[in-house]
Structure formats: structure tokens, C-alpha cells
Amino acid sequence: MKDANELAAERTDLAYERTALANDRTLMAWIRTAVSLVSFGFTLYKFLHEFREAEHLERSDSVFTPRIVGMVLIALGFLGLLFAYFQYRLDMKRLSSYANELPKSFTPYFAILILLFSMMLFFAAMFRY
């Protein structure tokens, strides 16, 4: 049978683990948001670009062209995920200074892959792919 100190230490370790898992879920929510922004931005850019080409519409001198709006949405998704990744790393570093051992996660690696992919889409829109 465990004494009170052992139970308290075990519960504290579990609390740190729950906090780390909550931090992981927060990063996953940011990944979903970033993917939505990036995919909507690129889809908007490509759809309206192809529509304009198919209809032989003239280019407008407006600031809010489909390309600019798409690039802004892609950049917002990229920056949101980039800031979320840095916040995740800071929180995990701070939490690891308190906890003995935290669960390892592949979520930050997935976030990096999404960051790289969104950067590729941004440059594709920039260079008019």
C-alpha cells in the first residue's frame, strides 16, 4: 500500500502529464486552423485564377486580387502555426523543468511538415504557379 507522499507524487506526475497532453492538443488545434487557412487561401487563388483565365477577364488594378488574398490567407496560416509551434516548445520546456518525465509526441514534427508545405504553397502562389 502506498503512503500519502507516494500518492501525492504520483498525482502530481499525472497532472504534469495531463498538462503536456493539453499542450499537445492545443498545437493540434492550431495545425487544423493553419491547414484550413492555407488550403482555403490556395484554393481561392487557384479557383479564381482559373475562372478568370477561362472567362478571359481582364486583370483589375484592385489591391484585393485573388492572388493577394490567397497569399495573405496562406501567410496567416503559416504565421499562426509558426507562433503556435514556438509557444508549444516554450511551454514544454517550462513544464519539463517541473516534471520528471513527459510523454513524447509526434505532433511538433507534423507541425513542421505543415509549415514546410504551407511555405511551398506560398511561394507557388508568389511565383504564379
Q: Can you walk me through this structure?
A:
The chain has 129 residues and is mainly alpha-helical. 80% of the residues lie in helices and 0% in strands. The chain has 3 helices and no strands. Helix 1 (4-55) runs antiparallel to helix 2 and helix 2 runs antiparallel to helix 3 (107-126). The chain is rod-shaped and about 80 Å long. The model has no long low-confidence stretch (mean pLDDT 89).
List the helices and strands and how they pair.
Elements: H1 4-55, H2 66-96, H3 107-126
Helix pairs in contact: 1-2, 1-3, 2-3
What structural class should be given to the helix and strand makeup?
Answer: mainly alpha
Low-pLDDT sequence parts: none
Q: Separation of termini?
A: 67 Å
Q: Secondary-structure element sequence?
A: HHH
Q: Give the helix proportion (percent range).
A: over 70%
The tally of strands reads: 0
| Outline type | rod-shaped
> Counting H and I runs of at least 4 residues, what is the number of helices?
3
